[in-house]
């Protein structure tokens, strides 16, 4: 942990988000970064705008015009995006996060799987012949770099 100048104890965080960004010179001094320094104007989904130094930005982000690895695809899935693989056999197939899972038991009762610790979400595979809840990734799926946002 690092300690800020105001004696607040700083904690370490990790985050993943999908943002919009464009190359931009710094418009004001920010810490050790001077006006005019190369960087990126960053816009978050909630509309918040900030600036990031070029080297910091380049280490944290890559453009989503290309493909992603499975970890990035999972992060996109968790934030509400549908994702697919370029090398899947069927066209139009994708996976998405299914929320508030429920099912009908053999007596016709609707059961809600609202259990926060055991999970009330699943990955749904949407294919040409229907939807499969509880899709499991293969080794090939997990090690592939051909994932993309639908």
How many domains make up the coordinates? 2
Write down the oligomeric state: single chain
Overall strand count: 10
Instruction: Summarize the helix and strand pattern as letters.
Output: EEEHHEEEEEEHE
Question: What would your notes on this structure say?
Answer:
This protein has 3 helices and 10 strands; from the N terminus they run E-E-E-H-H-E-E-E-E-E-E-H-E. A hairpin with a 2-residue loop joins strand 8 (about 120-125) and strand 9 (about 130-135). It folds into 2 domains: about 20-60, no CATH class; about 70-150, no CATH class. The radius of gyration is 21 Å and the shape is elongated. The protein is α+β, with helices and mostly antiparallel strands and about 150 residues long. It has a 3-stranded antiparallel β-sheet with strand order 1-2-3. The chain has a 3-stranded antiparallel β-sheet with strand order 5-8-9, with no helix packed on it. Strands 4-10 form a two-stranded antiparallel ribbon. The model has no long low-confidence stretch (mean pLDDT about 90). This is DUF2829 domain-containing protein.
What does the secondary structure layout of this molecule look like, with pairings?
Layout: E1 20-25, E2 38-43, E3 49-53, H1 54-60, H2 70-78, E4 83-85, E5 94-99, E6 102-104, E7 110-112, E8 121-127, E9 130-133, H3 139-143, E10 147-149
Antiparallel strand pairs: 1-2, 2-3, 4-10, 5-8, 6-7, 8-9
